[in-house]
Amino acid sequence: MTEHLGPPVGEEPGQHHGEPMQLEPPYGGTAPYDLETREALERDAKEIIARYPKARSALLPMLHLVQSVDGHITQRGIDLCADLLGITAAQVTGVATFYTQYKRKPVGEYHVGVCINTLCAVMGGDQIWAELSEHVGVGHDEATPDGTVSLERIECNAACDFAPVMTVNWEFFDDMTPEKAKALVDDLRAGREVAPSRGPGRVCTWKEASRVLAGFPDGRAHEGVQAGPQSLRGLEVARDNGWAAPPVPAGPVDAEPPTPGEVTDPPPNEPGKPIGGSVKPGSQEGRNQ
Amino acid sequence: MTTLTPILTKNWNQPDSFTRAGYEREGGYQALRRALTLEPDAIVQAVKDSGLRGRGGAGFPTGMKWGFLPPSSPNPRYLVVNADESEPGTCKDIPLMLANPHVLVEGVIISAYAIKSNHAFIYVRGEVLHVIRRLQRAVAEAYEAGYIGTNILGSGYDLELVVHTGAGAYICGEETALLDSLEGFRGQPRLKPPFPAVAGLYGGPTVINNVESIASVPSIVANGADWFASMGTEKSQGFGIFSLSGHVTRPGQYEAPLGITLRELLAMAGGVRDGHRLKFWTPGGSSTPLFTDEHLDVPLDFESVGAAGSMLGTRALQIFDETVCVVRAVLRWSEFYAHESCGKCTPCREGTYWYKQMLKRLEAGQGSEDDLDTLLDLSDNILGRSFCALGDGATSPVVSSIKLFRDEYIAHFEQGGCPFDPAKSTLWAGNR
């Protein structure tokens, strides 16, 4: 973006705090992986690739996998993806730079997001951001010098009924206030366990979270609430008023069979038959266990 | 009076609602057993007859979309679920997948069977870690139970289902950008035609549906198309989750027949927060033109909201009271669109950039009335000229706010700054 074209009005919020971490351009992490790490990465990457009919579909999860080891997208991670997928490093870089969750520099062990989209901002997200950023001493996309915490101004995270919302390593922190936000980050920096509003018993690290995003479950799906209080509000109103969906009609409810004219040639991949083309039947050895 | 109809949300108060055991206790996967005894085309017909329209915003009839798949093609068919919920204000699919992922999984299996696909994907946004865990677990449980895999429940039907995690890009909610992303590329929309039904994922015939659309399918198979169509209005049949957020006493998820009004929903949610009044609201997310208190009685169905000048969208009802500066709200949305514009087409890439610059100036009280005309002119050059709906959506808050609140824009530059105190809009205003 050509930022110089616009009239300078005000200051970008959160751009003026602290010292950003100094990094080697462009990605850091140019030293090759040690043998053991490389083998583990290749094994996991091959499991990801096996989930898809075409290998390149594995690129996004593989980039999450790189972050689960390196913490951000490194040059060696880019090269690994390119090698295993048979594409160029430039093609991988083009993808890695498009998506906000892929970080071009290290983030904290706990990456803290504050929603500053309109509704959360209005409900207090702007104030939370201002106070938290001041409190921690870093701005947008910056990490503390000890690498514990980084902050990001995030866009709408689909939890608007819990506004203002925050995230830590993509776990939900609902109904936040500036005080709760500061206490949360203080706890994280002090090494105390914190639990999200809707999520597992404790927040995992950025690298652990990245591994789940790559499609390797951490066995914690059963932890935490099934729904937040706001999610149940309509259900409670319905219960209090005795409201329910219309009763289901008795007896079979078979749909009218389609008229013969609408039934055309059988499809190439009929149910029960192996799917054709270059797709390996049952090619999901690495499916989510 | 319209009453609530908990269907998808019905079991959300059960602590184990997200497990297979919890879902089956409430009758889960019975629709699948029934579906596998039916001809696939009979399920397509039932979905057509039900009147189900896409719940992801556009409202296209789901059964008709399925019917667009060519009867024969050299490539396999695919079903892709759009779980990239990112439209500002929209927050229904995420709690649905957190509390009841199995209703989506069951819907995927039935829908894939109906369209004769053997490979399905759930593309879920990456910023919702616990939802991803729940989806991964639900899919694994369904494999263990023999609901996914080879020869499902002895029917001879095979299906593979992959949970695919995105990486932070609103544009991937656009269906063809989603396909590019799922194929491992930058998420940029494709030129249509060909439509995904003809050439979608890997060039194969592909159906892409929203989470809530697919999750509604088991109820149609179990209870019948007539049951589904008995709810809602003439052309907007069935139920949907309405998400109330912002300055409302009890924000949350309210599942109701289409056609319910905001006045009715607000009454259920305790009204606008105490001591305040409704100023403006979005009927279906930030990409739908703003409404005011004049629109409290508009039936929230596709036709009525459209006739009143907006769009039903995703039923994301963001409520703003009189403490909120509309210029600030629109600036922030415009910054969002500028951030999320994929850069492929000039009207959207440059237009959203200039929106941001001009609105910043206006909010700071440094603009002029001429700027409003420039904004409208700019909007004319984005709307209908952008490659996809992201650019069109970006114009909605700008154009509608100038139309409804022109005086408020003028007050900014007459007073040399914003006349509102943002502290009064916060959740803790008056308590701190």
Which features characterize this protein?
heterodimer; A: 289 residues; alpha+beta; Arc Repressor Mutant, subunit A; Glutaredoxin; five-stranded mixed beta sheet; 8 helices; disordered N terminus; disordered C terminus; B: 432 residues; alpha/beta; Rossmann fold; Ubiquitin-like (UB roll); de novo design (two linked rop proteins); four-stranded parallel beta sheet; 12% strand
Describe the structure.
The complex is a heterodimer of chains A (289) and B (432). Chain A has helices spanning 35-49, 59-70, 75-85, 89-96, 118-136, 178-189, 206-213, 233-241; strands at 110-115, 142-143, 149-154, 166-168, 171-173. Among the domains of chain A are: 35-96, Arc Repressor Mutant, subunit A, CATH 1.10.10; 110-205, Glutaredoxin (3-Layer(aba) Sandwich). Chain A is globular. Chain A is an alpha+beta fold. Chain A has 8 helices and 5 strands; from the N terminus they run H-H-H-H-E-H-E-E-E-E-H-H-H. Chain A starts with 34 loop residues before the first helix and ends in a 48-residue tail after the last helix. Chain B has 432 residues and is of the alpha/beta class. Chain B is 41% helix and 12% strand. In chain B, the strands form 2 sheets. Chain B has a 5-stranded mixed sheet with strand order 6-5-9-7-8, covered by helices on one side. The chains are: A alpha+beta (289), B alpha/beta (432). The interface between A and B is large, with 119 and 141 residues. Chain B: Keywords: 4Fe-4S, Flavoprotein, FMN, Iron, Iron-sulfur, Metal-binding, NAD, Oxidoreductase, Quinone, Translocase. Chain B: NDH-1 shuttles electrons from NADH, via FMN and iron-sulfur (Fe-S) centers, to quinones in the respiratory chain.
